[in-house]
Amino acid sequence: MKRRAFTLIEVLVSLAIFAVAAVSLGAAYSNVLLSRIAMKQDEQRLDDRARCRAALLETPGFEDVEAGGEINLPGGRIARWAGKIEATSVSDLFAVQLTAEIEGADGAEAEEFAETRMLLRPTWSIPSDRQKIRDEARQRLEKERGYKEADGNSAFISAPTRGKKLIPAQPVAGGKGGKGQPAPTNGKNGQPGRQPAAPPAKK
Length: 203
Description:
- There is one protein chain.
- The protein is an alpha+beta fold.
- The protein is built from three helices and six strands, in the order ααββββαββ.
- It has helices at 8-57, 62-67, 127-145, and strands at 69-73, 77-87, 93-102, 111-120, 149-150, 153-154.
- It starts with 7 loop residues before the first helix and ends in a 49-residue tail after the last strand.
């Protein structure tokens, strides 16, 4: 009995299917590798920026923040940062614009980024400027509210609502359907007295 062999067309079709599957698997594997590399780069970028923010927050002096500094990063890289401070309309609150230049890994191009942070720094404020801002805020609140406050208690007292004064009804005992009879007033000065005794029965 002779066995039937594959034809040339069947062999070519199978080779084409195998080639397509191999290319698809190779592309998927390369995409996974590229994704892992991109995630690693993103993590490194986020870590570098977090170090720059930490350096800004750990610097207490006004002049030191504006002068900036350098940070040693993993891989022998260096990041240079500086801050630009601007006062706000809120007392002791400052808007600090952080700018940094981070060296790339393996000789890559340096990355620059900038962001603004709101920092509460009472030591950066000048007493005269702080008092001026507070006075302006107090005047603005008084204008919006329409009244002043002294010692934490409001000096504004609302007028009572005008209307009829309601007198609660006096409950009356007895009676059908909630309607009772008036109490006898045979007492002294019209005050309620005791009921007169019933006459004795005749024998």
